[in-house]
């Protein structure tokens, strides 16, 4: 799918400096909750739960019900309290917002991409929040055709998410998805005739976001979520037909179903995937009325992916003995006989295959080696392989996806902590990269002003954990520098060291910005991921603590100057490490945090619950319940001193319910014995990603950063 994707408060003195880049920010008093009226106090309404012979009492379970006026009243009271506490930082927030906005080129355009005779691109206009999607026929000199103006679609809506579009093979009909709830799980599918500019009457009101055209220019396959937002069904829609046909239903609650089309355009595939197993069903794209056929029946702990090629299939394969994946090729005729499969890329325990992109003459293989992404170009006929070279010791590089199967060039992006994202076309014949576009920072940016390093912390069990850090050159390592330490550490998602323009509002004020590449992600391969989930999940949290301690030991910062941040499952990380070592951190910003682990994982009606048994465990099983109870942030709160904390949420969040941060803050208010600020900020109009416009979300980021800065005593 062609998608255009876009990503802390307190009292300070009344004097705000206009400059964002003072090397010696003004130090002011750090206010505490004693300086303000009493915060909201949620009523206790105990509910008793019995699991495996244990009783749990949850005083704030009632906050789960957003249809309850008392719940909404409490959230509004918390928002009002947060605004009161943050009132004196409004000038700082405005300064931060303007800095961040100043790093965005307001009038900009993506690099055009050739697909089926048209060059597709998006552009942004000054002052507008969303993109305009365009194309040109045959040549970049051809007249521009605006196919969608997202600004018009979003007008008057409190939230808007554009999920992408797909064009029919004859280039005439566009299928596109969007929503106005702020949810990343449910979309509306519409169709537009690009010849007339008219919307077609066809409309699917609730689907999960994936669109795939068949070759007949009238048939579209799409996936639909169930009540728990698990993508479980694939339907076929024929333009003009009011009733859609169910072509696949995934009944196993651990699996999701998705549909897509090969780069060759010849094959449509349905993938049924869990976190540990997969199965593919194939259908020729020119025969949409045929039945999908299973490529290889699912097997426990085996995952595979298929890339179509004229006379064969290329298959990525993962099993317990080949966790970092290997690649096979198999003939189209008789592929069912595994003895006909040929291994072309062997398993390497030191290099995880992240994916392959197959062209007519070449295959691009992306690997993760020692925590960094590497790209190899393999000539299909000869097997000769060359490596794309990258110049820096800490970086991120990733494929942008090249639509044309016959292309001899592939497009990739390169970035690092101090290098804005740069897009290249790599010529696979000459092995030369051509720079197409570097992200422009209108307010000015000099990469050479900053130091980037890779550090290694030693975890509790002796394992070395990488950190990536950036700070201003010339900074003295004396333990007095403020620091923001970020991580995620779940689902095998690697936290790559890419360019984040916003964090320079902190770095330019003397901060060290650090990323902890902890277990639970797959930064050092698949075993790194497996060593941070299920019964080994505690490694994720102790790794993060080890990274924080290493930064302090090496004099980059001190516990009184250390802020930490994470969102969603990274919010779980924030809650867990705060319980483990509340003395280690000065400030905690937990965005849409998954903190009510036991209650959420016991409720199979909630999104993401049942299929995530393979991540966290199933609390209906005593062994899993007992282990999850050792780290569930909400269940492990106790009377203690805690850092200053800001928790955020979204009322329409489909991934982590708003009630999780709300309950966590309510319980913290009752138990904490310190006088530090504790705030809850709920976006009442949006979901998991917060505000949806390219400028509106910066206001939330400015709020978060202002919270951190003020708690460090920095007012400008």
Q: What is the average per-residue confidence, as pLDDT, rounded to a whole number?
A: 93
In total, the number of strands is: 39
Give me the secondary-structure category. Answer: alpha+beta
Distance, first to last CA: 43 Å
Strand content: 25-35%
Going across the biggest sheet, name each strand in turn: 32-33-35-34-36-37-38-39
Q: Into which percent range does the helicity of residues fall?
A: 10-25%
Keywords:
disordered N terminus; 12 helices; eight-stranded mixed sheet; single chain; 716 residues; alpha+beta; signal; globular; hydrolase
Q: Summarize this, please?
A:
Residues 498-713 form the Peptidase S9 prolyl oligopeptidase catalytic domain. The protein has twelve helices and 39 strands.
Task: Please describe what this structure looks like.
Keywords: Hydrolase, Protease, Serine protease, Signal. Residues 1-20 form the signal peptide. By secondary structure, the chain is α+β, with helices and mostly antiparallel strands. Helix content is 17%, strand content 34%. Strand 26 (372-379) and strand 27 (385-387) form a beta hairpin. The longest helix is centred in the N-terminal third of the chain and has 18 residues, at 69-86.
SSE blueprint:
Layout: E1 47-51, E2 54-58, H1 69-86, H2 90-102, E3 108-109, E4 113-115, E5 118-124, E6 132-137, E7 145-149, H3 150-154, E8 161-167, E9 173-179, E10 187-193, E11 198-207, E12 211-213, E13 219-225, E14 231-238, E15 245-249, E16 256-261, E17 267-273, E18 278-284, E19 293-294, E20 303-309, E21 312-319, E22 322-331, E23 342-345, E24 351-358, E25 362-369, E26 372-379, E27 385-387, E28 396-399, E29 409-416, E30 419-427, E31 432-438, E32 450-458, E33 464-472, E34 483-486, H4 504-507, E35 512-516, H5 526-530, H6 538-553, E36 562-567, H7 569-580, E37 587-591, H8 597-602, H9 613-616, H10 622-628, E38 644-650, H11 659-671, E39 678-683, H12 696-711
Parallel strand pairs: 34-35, 34-36, 36-37, 37-38, 38-39
Antiparallel strand pairs: 1-2, 3-5, 4-5, 5-6, 6-7, 8-9, 9-10, 10-11, 12-13, 13-14, 14-15, 16-17, 17-18, 18-19, 20-21, 21-22, 22-23, 24-25, 25-26, 26-27, 28-29, 29-30, 30-31, 32-33, 33-35
Helix pairs in contact: 2-12, 6-7
InterPro entries: AB_hydrolase_fold (IPR029058), Pept_S9A_N (IPR023302), Peptidase_S9_cat (IPR001375), Peptidase_S9A (IPR002470), Serine_Peptidase_S9A (IPR051543)
Domain Peptidase S9A N-terminal: 40-439
Keywords: Hydrolase, Protease, Serine protease, Signal
């Amino acid at each position: 799918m062609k998608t255009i994707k876009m990503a802390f408060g307190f009292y300070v003195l009344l004097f705000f400096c206009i400059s964002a880049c003072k090397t010696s920010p003004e130090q002011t008093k750090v206010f505490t909750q004693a300086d303000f009226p009493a915060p909201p106090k949620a009523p206790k309404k105990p509910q008793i739960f019995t699991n495996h012979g244990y009783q749990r009492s949850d005083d704030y379970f009632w906050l789960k019900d957003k249809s309850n006026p008392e719940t909404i009243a409490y959230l509004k009271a918390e928002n009002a309290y947060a605004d009161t506490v943050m009132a004196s930082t409004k000038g700082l927030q405005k300064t931060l917002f303007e800095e961040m906005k100043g790093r965005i080129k307001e009038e900009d355009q993506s690099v055009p991409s050739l697909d089926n005779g048209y060059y597709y691109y998006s552009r942004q206009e000054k002052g507008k929040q969303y993109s305009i999607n365009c194309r040109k026929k045959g040549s970049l000199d051809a007249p521009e055709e605006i196919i969608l103006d997202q600004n018009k679609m979003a007008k008057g809506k409190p939230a808007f998410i554009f999920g992408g579009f797909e064009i029919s093979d004859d280039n005439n009909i566009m299928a596109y998805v969007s929503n106005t709830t702020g949810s990343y799980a449910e979309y509306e599918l519409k169709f537009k005739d690009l010849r007339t500019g008219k919307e077609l009457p066809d409309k699917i009101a609730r689907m999960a976001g994936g669109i795939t055209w068949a070759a007949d220019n009238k048939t579209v396959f799409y996936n639909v979520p169930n009540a728990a937002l698990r993508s479980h069904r694939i339907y076929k829609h024929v333009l003009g037909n009011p009733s859609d046909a169910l072509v696949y239903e995934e009944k196993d609650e651990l699996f999701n179903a998705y549909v897509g089309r090969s780069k060759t355009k010849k094959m449509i595939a349905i993938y049924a995937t869990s976190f540990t197993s997969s199965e593919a069903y194939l259908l020729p794209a020119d025969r949409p009325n045929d039945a999908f056929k299973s490529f290889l029946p699912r097997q426990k702990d085996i995952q595979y992916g298929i890339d179509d090629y004229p006379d064969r299939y290329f298959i990525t394969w993962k099993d317990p003995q080949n966790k970092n994946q290997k690649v096979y090729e198999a003939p189209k005729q008789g592929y069912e006989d595994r003895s006909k499969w040929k291994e072309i890329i062997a398993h390497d325990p030191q290099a995880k295959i992240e994916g392959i992109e197959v062209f007519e003459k070449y295959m691009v293989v992306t690997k993760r080696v020692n925590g960094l992404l590497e790209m190899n170009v393999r000539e299909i006929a000869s097997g000769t392989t060359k490596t794309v070279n990258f110049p820096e010791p800490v970086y991120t590089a990733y494929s942008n996806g090249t639509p044309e199967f016959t292309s001899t060039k592939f497009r990739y992006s390169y970035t690092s902590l101090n290098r804005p994202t740069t897009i290249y076309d790599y010529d696979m014949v000459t092995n030369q990269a051509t720079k197409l576009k570097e992200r422009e920072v209108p307010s000015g940016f000099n990469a050479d002003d900053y130091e980037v390093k890779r550090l290694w912390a030693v975890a509790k069990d002796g394992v070395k954990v990488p950190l990536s850090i950036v700070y201003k050159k010339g900074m003295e390592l004396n333990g007095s520098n403020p620091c923001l330490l970020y991580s995620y550490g779940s689902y095998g998602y690697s936290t790559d060291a890419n360019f984040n323009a916003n964090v320079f509002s902190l770095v330019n004020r003397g901060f060290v910005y650090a990323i902890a590449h902890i277990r639970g992600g797959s930064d050092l391969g698949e075993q790194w991921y497996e060593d941070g989930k299920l019964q080994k999940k505690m490694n994720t949290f102790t790794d993060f603590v080890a990274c924080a301690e290493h930064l302090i030991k090496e004099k980059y910062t001190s516990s009184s100057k250390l802020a930490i941040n994470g969102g969603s499952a990274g919010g779980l990380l924030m809650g867990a490490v705060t319980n483990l070592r509340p003395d280690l951190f000065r400030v905690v910003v937990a965005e849409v945090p998954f903190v009510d682990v036991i209650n959420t994982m016991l409720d199979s009606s909630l999104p993401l619950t049942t299929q995530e048994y393979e991540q966290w465990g199933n609390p209906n099983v005593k062994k899993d319940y007992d282990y999850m109870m050792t780290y569930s942030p909400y269940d492990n709160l106790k009377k203690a001193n805690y850092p200053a904390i800001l928790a955020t949420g979204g009322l329409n969040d489909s991934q982590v319910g708003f009630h999780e941060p709300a309950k966590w803050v309510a319980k913290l208010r009752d138990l904490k014995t310190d006088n530090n600020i504790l705030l809850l900020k709920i976006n009442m109009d949006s979901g998991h990603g917060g505000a949806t416009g390219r400028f509106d979300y910066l206001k939330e980021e400015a709020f978060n950063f202002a919270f951190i800065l003020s708690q460090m005593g920095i007012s400008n």
